[in-house]
Design brief:
Layout: H1 2-21, E1 27-28, E2 34-46, H2 55-58, E3 60-70, E4 75-91, H3 94-103, H4 105-108, E5 124-129, E6 132-134, H5 144-152, E7 165-168, E8 175-192, H6 194-199, E9 207-220, E10 229-243, E11 248-260, E12 266-268, E13 274-287, E14 293-294, H7 303-327, H8 331-360, E15 375-376, E16 381-382, H9 395-407, E17 413-417, H10 426-446, E18 454-458, E19 474-479
Parallel strand pairs: 17-18
Antiparallel strand pairs: 1-14, 2-3, 2-13, 3-4, 4-8, 5-6, 5-12, 7-8, 8-9, 9-10, 10-11, 11-13, 15-19, 16-19, 17-19
Helix pairs in contact: 7-8
Length: about 475
């Protein structure tokens, strides 16, 4: 069962994380998206004989605390801890019930043995001391005055007088007792935000769905029928959060813990391999410095790009003036030219609006690229967060680079790819910048440029040409 569960978890996580990295239009959450949460609720032990008892009475309490961080809009991790109580149900062994039957024949006359005796053998035992097995008897029954009562059966007039009596097994295996003990979980959980993954992340969602998978340690404290025990725990669940402010959220979190078969100190003779601990908690979550920084639709231009755009606007205006001279006195041509003028005027307005938007953005000093000498082409190809797909808006910049090589047949171009530091970790960013540089070079080769005229390099996030983080998702051309 352990291998099957681990395989399922790996497949689920690979599918979710693969989908997340396939997103192209998203936002960066920044560096400070830490969160902390505190909650409480109910716990339920599902071990060997627990389903034979009164299940509502087996529900105990649990508390939960966690602290974590979102590394991207889709992927995060947390350290989580649980502390609470668990209650199990176990039937008294046949040897004890046979002694009771002999001591109290009046209570067993005419009673079907299957209602309170095992089928000829015990179904499991407690490990009461290290290296020592014992029958399933509450520990308190073997000490002090309880020992005398068990030994002589004095002062026990009915079955209900047995220590920790919990009623009859639903499978007719006889009366049973409650096993009560405290426990603690400590896990590291990987988390996924499905709301950002499937509906976008440009703004705060009112509801977030966040499945998680974790692994860690589980500790059972000494109880009335078991000694302490340390083992592993696998954890699977989901957090459903209602964000009533950008920082505060209420959540409901069901989760299932899978622990070793001897977690509760009782080992079964029925070939079990794991036990389950279910939690259902509600609580409150606080996210520190939550940020939403849009990166769709362009992240700004360099001064060289602004100058190039202004020159294009002036060329369009000159073209308008030339067309106006040509259409004078020619009615048919004039109608066609007027349509062209309207189109060109619209283009001029769009360019002017874009320039005004750029002028309102923070000023910066342009690229600073140590060790790379040469004439920089004014066109830099920009990319979306965590993407090496070339946007349609960037195609004219590649056209200009191709035009430059065609006009200078003896020149070569250095094609350098970069990634911003907030996308991911350095090794991932280095691979991403390589893909960006190679994607641009591959398109130029496909359009007739010899591969020998292109020098391809990539810097990852080891060098940042621009002061503004988002502007470093770029490929730069340098003439050689």
């Amino acid at each position: 069962m352990k291998k099957k569960f681990s395989f399922i978890c790996v497949v689920v996580l690979a599918t979710l994380f693969g989908s997340a990295y396939a997103q192209e239009d998203c936002v960066s959450l920044g560096r400070n998206n830490w969160f902390i949460s505190l909650g409480g609720g109910g716990s339920l032990l599902m071990a060997e004989q627990d389903r034979e008892g009164d299940i509502p009475k087996e529900i105990r309490y649990t508390g939960e605390i966690s602290i974590g961080k979102w590394f991207t809009p889709f992927f995060g991790a947390r350290i989580a801890g649980n502390y609470g109580a668990l209650r199990g149900f176990n039937t008294y062994p046949e040897s004890i019930m046979d002694m009771w039957r002999k001591a109290h024949p009046e209570q067993t006359a005419g009673v079907d043995y299957q209602k309170w005796l095992f089928d000829g053998t015990d179904r499991g035992k407690f490990k009461l001391l290290p290296g020592q097995d014992d029958v399933a008897i509450p520990k308190g029954a073997w000490t002090g005055t309880e020992w005398a009562r068990w030994r002589d059966w004095k002062g026990m007039a009915t079955i209900e007088d047995l220590p920790y009596y919990a009623g009859y097994s639903s499978k007719n295996y006889g009366p049973g007792f409650w096993q009560d003990f405290k426990y603690a979980f400590g896990t590291i959980d990987l988390m996924m935000n499905l709301s950002n993954l499937f509906t976008g992340c440009q703004k705060m969602h009112r509801f977030d769905i966040m499945p998680f998978l974790g692994i860690g340690i589980a500790y059972a404290f000494e109880g009335n029928a078991n000694y302490s025990n340390l083992t592993y725990v696998w954890k699977l669940g989901s957090r459903f959060a209602y964000n009533f402010t950008p920082h505060w959220a209420l959540y409901f979190e069901p989760q299932l813990g899978i622990v070793d078969e001897e977690f509760d100190g009782f080992y079964s003779l029925e070939s079990r391999s794991e036990e389950l601990v279910a939690h259902a908690t509600i609580g409150i979550q606080y996210t520190f410095n939550r940020k939403y920084i849009s990166c769709g639709g362009g992240a700004g231009l360099t001064p060289a790009e602004k100058e190039y755009l202004i020159n294009k606007i002036n060329e369009n205006r000159a073209l308008i003036d030339e067309n106006r001279d040509l259409i004078e006195g020619q009615q048919t041509i004039q109608e066609r030219q007027q349509a062209l003028l309207r189109d060109l005027d619209d283009r001029v307005d769009d360019h002017e609006k874009r320039i005004k938007t750029l002028e309102d953005q923070p000023k910066y000093n342009g690229p600073r690229i140590p060790g790379i000498e040469g004439d920089y082409l004014p066109e830099f190809v920009r990319f979306d967060l965590d993407s090496y797909k070339i946007r349609k808006s960037e195609q004219p910049k590649i056209d200009e680079a191709i035009r430059y090589l065609n006009e200078h047949p003896k020149s070569k171009l250095l094609v350098v790819g970069y990634a911003d530091v907030q996308t991911a970790y350095p090794a991932y960013n280095m691979k991403l910048s390589e893909k960006r540089a190679k994607a641009v070079a591959a398109q130029m080769v496909a359009r007739g440029i010899s591969a020998n005229r292109l020098i391809i390099e990539w810097k990852g996030d080891t060098e940042q040409p621009y002061e503004v983080n988002e502007w470093n998702r770029v490929v730069i051309f340098v003439a050689r």
